[in-house]
Design goal:
Its main location: membrane. The strands form four sheets. This protein has a seven-stranded mixed sheet, with no helix packed on it. A six-stranded parallel sheet has the order 4-6-8-10-12-13, with no helix packed on it. The N terminus is likely disordered. It is built from 14 helices and 21 strands. By secondary structure, it is an alpha/beta fold.
Length: 613
């Protein structure tokens, strides 16, 4: 009972949230002074004193719904302020006279499931940040003055309603998950182009009033693309003649420039030869030092990698199915500025910026006893099993003594930095953590099923190997670039004495069970907010100890408790984490079983939010 009282006191909406909500109302209803009759002032509480339009959770601690329809508001929507209420699930301002733009800060309402803004005077473009509202179910924007293109919100996989009729949207209709939508209407706008396949779910009334639209379900078919007209007449001939002269002149200039460049290169090579190919330790070039360090006492910079065999690479860089990087060569990596951004027991990680401004990440693998042929087969097999939440390998290089693997750089960093460093100011609440967990488990289950026969598991699953793309979705990196050893520490697991399990690893299935163990530690890291040390054993020991003392609630991250996250769902996720780190690999569930359970927890959470709304 004392614990419940403590949680209630520490979980109430803060003074800062109340100040933000008051500011939201002041901007929404300028000059009306709603604090007199409606609450909405600093001397009262939005839940206990029942501010007008506000509904709270069952414990009367957190604002869940704000419904302020038909109140003749003439101000603007201050999304940054209203989204300070982190548990807000429903925001409705329908049929007022609210004007201005919908700002990017609306994405701060990370638990928002329903957004109703129809019947107002909103204008301007919709923010692209709407795609980050992963819990959104209903989005109603009709009867406003919104313009510009409709942003791509296909990543909002649970969207059920999108109503945007009677606005001024233009451009094409973006991709939607029409198979999931229950309501869809973009009629009476300025949209153009071909209507995407709506899978027979919506009729012409959803698209009428857009003169530029064509295709089913509208009666007018889309015209074929116009043929390219041939240019005729003397003026065209003169134009081509002058163009030919210009091209000849350009070719001559290029030939002269090329001759000068080659001359300078030969001079530079002679100077390098005189210096004995010494590298300055402050240079940011990628040059391999695997065997050079052993031969010369480690004089080569850790920031450089040149081929250990000849200085130019006896094997060429192999670019996989990535048309953007076709033509990328091993020499491009050698010449490009590089920065060492990580070093671990499996190798080093470099951030490389090509001369065309593209940024890549190069993983240099060391101490891996694998043949060239086996490495190539492994990389190509991984490339064949693709999942949107697994980082694709762009290219690789393999010699007799080293391996390099190239990925695209992800500027939003890793899950580790998001969880422990509040990177980029992104909120990492319970809903976001549960969503990330579900995506990671599903991606790993997919990869395990596709690569089971090849025995290729991830081998080194941890939060620093989970990167975040531009949409803040998780991307698993370095899949399959580690091989489990005979007594790999991944098979250690928390038990009563928390000692090492030295069961030999002698079959393929144990490699996949090691990934399950790694996911279990990752779940504990997300639930507790604590750093993983000693391969997760300290964290597992501490969690087990707390559970034995019946202090289960004490293991959870205090920020999750403060936001009012469901203790029931957190305990459910904790239970699956403990199954994953069972000391016996055979007793651990498969990754598919883990994925199914986590997704059921996520679905239950979403249904709970919808019912409360």
């Amino acid at each position: 009972m004392a614990l419940f009282i403590l949680l209630s006191v520490t979980s109430a909406e803060t003074v800062q949230v109340r100040e933000a909500l008051v500011q939201f109302m002041e901007k929404l209803a300028p000059g009306k002074n709603p604090g007199e009759n409606w609450g909405w002032n600093m001397s009262s509480d939005p839940c206990i004193d029942a501010w007008k339009g506000i509904s709270c959770d069952k414990s009367m601690q957190f604002v869940k719904k704000i419904v302020l329809d038909q109140l003749n508001f003439t101000g603007v929507l201050d999304a940054a302020s209203v989204c300070s209420a982190k548990n807000l699930a429903v925001l409705s301002l329908s049929n007022n006279n609210v004007s201005g733009m919908l700002s990017d800060e609306v994405s701060n309402c990370t638990r928002l499931t329903h957004l109703y803004l129809h019947g107002n005077n909103f204008s301007g473009n919709l923010p692209g940040s709407l795609s980050r509202l992963s819990n959104l179910k209903r989005l109603v924007l009709s009867d406003n003055g919104f313009s510009g293109g409709i942003p791509d919100i296909s990543r909002v996989s649970g969207l059920l309603t999108f109503l945007a009729q009677n606005n001024q949207f233009n451009g094409v209709i973006p991709k939607f998950e029409f198979s999931n939508l229950e309501e869809f209407n973009v009629s009476n706008n300025n949209l153009s182009g071909s209507i995407p396949d709506v899978e027979g779910r919506f009729n012409a009334s959803s698209f009428l009033g857009n003169p530029g639209l064509c295709g089913k379900p509208l009666p007018n078919t889309c015209p074929p693309p116009p043929p390219v007209a041939e240019k005729k007449g003397s003026s065209s001939k003169m134009y081509l003649m002058y163009l030919g002269y210009a091209l000849i002149g350009l070719i001559l200039v290029c030939l002269i420039a090329l001759k000068v460049i080659r001359k300078n290169k030969r001079k530079g090579k002679k100077e390098i030869a005189k210096k004995g190919l010494q590298t300055d330790a402050t240079k940011d070039k990628i040059i391999s030092s695997t065997s050079s360090e052993s031969k010369r006492g480690g004089n080569i910079s850790e920031y450089s990698i040149t081929s250990v065999e000849s200085g130019m690479g006896s094997s060429s860089l192999v670019v996989l199915s990535s048309p953007v990087f076709n033509g990328l060569k091993f020499e491009d990596l050698l010449r490009s500025p590089a920065e060492l951004i990580g070093r671990g027991r499996h190798g080093s990680l470099y951030k490389v910026t090509l001369n065309r401004g593209v940024t890549l990440v190069v993983k240099r693998i060391r101490d891996w006893d694998i043949s060239r042929d086996d490495f190539k087969k492994r990389v190509h097999r991984i490339d064949q099993v693709k999942h949107p939440n697994v980082m694709p390998i762009i290219a690789y290089y393999c010699s007799s003594q080293e391996q390099l693997v190239v990925y695209e750089f992800q500027q939003n960093g890793s899950l580790f930095r998001l969880l422990h460093g509040s990177e980029n100011g992104h909120l990492f609440d319970w809903g976001s953590r549960l969503s990330v967990t579900a995506r990671i488990a599903e991606a790993l289950a997919f990869m395990h099923e596709g690569l089971q026969g090849d025995g290729i598991a991830h081998g080194n699953l941890k939060s620093s190997n989970i990167l975040l793309n531009n949409g803040m979705e998780p991307c698993i990196s370095e899949y399959g670039l580690s091989v489990v050893n005979n007594q790999d520490s991944s098979f250690l697991a928390p038990n009563d004495s928390f000692q090492e399990n030295t069961t030999p690893v002698n079959n393929m299935s144990n490699a996949f069970k090691a990934d399950v163990f790694g996911l279990g530690i990752l779940l504990l890291e997300l639930l507790t907010g604590k750093l993983v040390q000693n391969n997760g054993f300290d964290l597992g020991r501490w969690v087990n100890s707390a559970i034995r003392e019946e202090w289960t609630v004490e293991v959870f991250d205090k920020t999750l408790i403060a936001e009012g996250a469901s203790e029931e769902r957190m305990v459910n996720l904790l239970q699956i984490a403990l199954k994953c780190i069972n000391s016996s690999p055979e007793e651990r569930p498969s990754m598919r079983e883990v994925s199914v359970i986590i997704n059921s927890i996520k679905e239950y959470e979403e249904k709970s939010l919808s019912s409360e709304a």
